[in-house]
Amino acid sequence: MSAVFEVLNLKKAFSGLAVTNDVTLSMATGDRVALIGPNGAGKTTFVNLVTGNLRPDSGDVRLNGETVTKVDAIGRVRRGLVRSFQVTRLFQEMTPAEHVALAILQRDGRAGAMYGNFLSMPDVMDETAALLGTLGLVHLLHRKVSEIAYGQQRLLEIAVALALKPRVLLLDEPAAGVPQSDTGRIEQALAELPADLAVLMIEHDMDLVFRFARRVIVLAAGTIIFDGLPADVTKNAAVREAYLGSYANASHAA
Amino acid sequence: MQTFFSIAVDAFAYGMVLFVISIGLSVTMGLMRVVNLAHGAFAMIGGYIASYAAQSLGLGYAAAILLAVFGTVAISIPIERLLYRRIYGAPELTQVLMTIGITFCIIGIANYAFGPTLKTIPLPTALQGSADLGFRSIATHRIFAIVCGLVVAGALWYAIEKTAFGVKLRASVDNASMAAALGVRTEIIYAVSFAVAVGLAAFGGVLGAELLPVEPYYALRYMVTFLVVVSVGGAGSIPGALLACLLLGGIDTTGRYLMPEFGEFFFYLAVIAIICIFPRGLAGRVR
Amino acid sequence: MTEETVAVTARQSRSIGRDLLGIGAIISAAAIGYLLFPDNLALLTRIIAIALLVLSLDLVTGYCGVATLGHAALFGSGAYAAGIISAHYGIADPILMTLAGIVGGAAAGLVCGVIILRAHGLPQLVLSIALIYLFHEFANKASSWTGGSDGLSGISTDPLLGMFEFDLWGQTAYFFGVALLLAVLMLLRVLVRSPFGMLCRGIKEDPLRIIAMGASPKTALIKMYVISGAVAGVGGALNAISTQVVGLDSLSFTLSAESLVMLVLGGGGSLFGALTGTVVFMLFEDYVSAANPFHWLTMVGVLLIAVVLFAPKGLYGTAAGFVACRREKRP
Fold first, then answer.
1. Is residue C63 part of a domain?
2. Do chains A and B touch (3 or more CB pairs under 8 A)?
3. Chain C residues within 8 A (CB-CB) of chain A?
């Protein structure tokens, strides 16, 4: 299958310190990849390089075969690379319906329309209600975001991303900060993500990673040290060393 | 050559006065993130106090300056406690409105108390004449303003770079919550910086009374100039503020000498150009 | 889904009801003003012109969150554009003059928008102040066009629609102003509820989120600035038409600051808030400043501090919040 999303030899250094060092990876439609790594591994920088918020020193990012390294963040979203935020960035004064409708209108190039109202646009309203329905948020359609629970805000964050109909979805710790009792709904939403979507999830919670991902990439000190099946990741010596320090393998061997 | 020299001296003196008044604003803005539009009003209060002390109480110039500085700080303390405390960390628009409100009140009160006329602060005889440099003579007051500006810049540089207070101040500017976690009493740093800023503004108001005449609309008229200095220099940066003052003083003075009919047109044009090219100020750090 | 449809219909009919109520309120306020101050219609027309400026400021500050202290640049440009085509080119038709005001205001809006949006925070504020002074100095210098500090005089206006002469008592100007205000208000109601209006509210809350949705905050804000300029231009043109003179004060920092005060007094982010703030401020000003202009300044200052401390949502916003609270408590 052809790659929908590729990163080629991406490099970025801050004042001489390599934070992303020669990262190469490739994803195809339908992939479910988890990107993990110890603190300071350069995950945030990597995300910012991919979304276009940072310029790489060298290397390329490709979407659907098109090199987008010089395309800004907005252009990459329009080409189908959408991200969610680790800390919810929602409009506190607006409703879930408005969030999703705005994303739909923006996707269709109608967000600049200076007349009409999405409430009276049946196609937008139907799609909004359907999307929020699949995430179990339809009863909150017209509540203010500041009034809804954090777990529901995280689901809305996913809904906004999906409304943009991405080809590649970057989920930045989708369950971060959500109480254990509410993570089930988020996991279900992740399991039901459309099949024609390539998903790269940055996550700390290994339970979630093992349930969601069919491939795991481990980033340490800006370099990919592992790229393979979830079952193999804990057995890998380099991964153990990165997480546990050098004597981890010794004790494992013993 | 003659004109060039006059422009250079006037620009330098004007720039130094601007520096003395604005540097406090720059430090407090960098430290407390408060857009303080009332800073010029404190300079004006200093000017009024000095004028009153010299004209009505018959005090000498030095005593008038001291009274102005301490009097203005005394006036500013309740204002800081009651009003500024409420807007630390508030949205910018709120800060703008509150400090404009304070400015309007001070203007109204100054006019009620002192009337709408210009107030002068008589210079001591030592500063009245001009100093002969052999090829050219300079008004002694200009030299005094330049020396004061340099002394203030040097003292501030020493206080910030070489003293324990300066270390705490810089830490608070960089990251207030981290500094607080490390045991720096940030509220004391804030209060002291605010008082020093106001005191310097008052000093500058007296020092610059020859160039920026004291009258009720002073606070509004020069508010823009002081804000411009801070945003061109970059909030919280002493070298940036110094550079901005000299640059803007130069542009303004040159404009007045060579093209008086254009008023301040070129001054504002330069401001817009500089901010468009350096949106974070000449010495602004990327945040 | 039927429940949803019912809810949506209810929401829409409620907002249409509110619109009708608002229009009714404005028409009755206009009628009351006409009956109460038949000798002072000039003041009422001036209030309408300033209300258009404050509405225009509301679009960029209240709806988009751009803090500016130079918004009179848009108003003054509209006023000069309308005045200049009449005084220098003899185009005296009030509708054409209004159109010139719209074009002049929109052009100034484009210039100001492009420049102001280059920076954020304090530098942005300083840019807006520098711009209004620049416009002011420019108009002062270009005195052969603008009349400089004497003001632009020699503005004449033909009868409105060829029928209604602009009379000495300002009746025609007043009715023309009320009609303009209603037309602008209805258009703006449509605008703020449109997808574009929603996009702008999003930009006010979190521009980075908007970028992550693939929309450009800057493009949207510049568009809004142009629209805002057109609205302010209508106000400027109305002022030029009704007073037959355009002064440098229409391009002043003071007017810019006052319009911001009016907006905040009434409550930003709401069209009726902007109107409320203007009317209260202007009537108050007329009453107090007649007595003593400096007391007036002190009172504005106190008022500002009080609004910031006790009614941060403004008069209209606080009242609307109170009503909504009562409504929710009712079973």
1. yes
2. no
3. 1, 4, 7-8, 11-12, 190-191, 193-199, 201-202, 205-206, 208-209, 211-216, 220, 223, 227
